[in-house]
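User: I'm writing a tutorial on reading structure tokens. Could you give me a worked example: one chain, its sequence, then its tokens, then a sentence or two explaining what the tokens reveal?
Assistant: Sure. Here is the example chain.
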Amino acid sequence: MPKPVVNKASTVWNGDLTSGSGKTSLDSSGAASFDMGWSARSEGVKGTNPEELIAAAHATCYSMAFAHGLKENGTPPEQINTNAEVTFDASIPAITGIKLTVNAQVPDISEDDFQRIAEETKTGCPVSKALEAVPIELSATLA
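And here are its predicted structure tokens:
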């Protein structure tokens, strides 16, 4: 049985919310650090924000879980392309929805099986489970 893995990230924030700024680091991997600011989050200006990081995590997790489900079905994928869109409404402030769009090349699978596994993955992937308080929409296309 695999041992639980703890991943770490950190943020240093300077100043108040609207005029301040910060830097978030992926501490476990050391793979990257990102500049953060309220305007990137609330106005869509250049820079990253928590919702973009959530979108990246969700797209990755969904792709991995979908690949596993397809293999378990006896129809391993050749390729899975997943896009995640996380909507943030600054007036609330809240994340109001997530849209997953997946396009996959899966030989020898029926459309019904493909859609069933895609839907099962939407509710079953660990990031989807963590985000289940937010409506998650899925569009899955078999290429």
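What the tokens reveal: The two ends are 35 Å apart (CA to CA). The mean pLDDT is 96.
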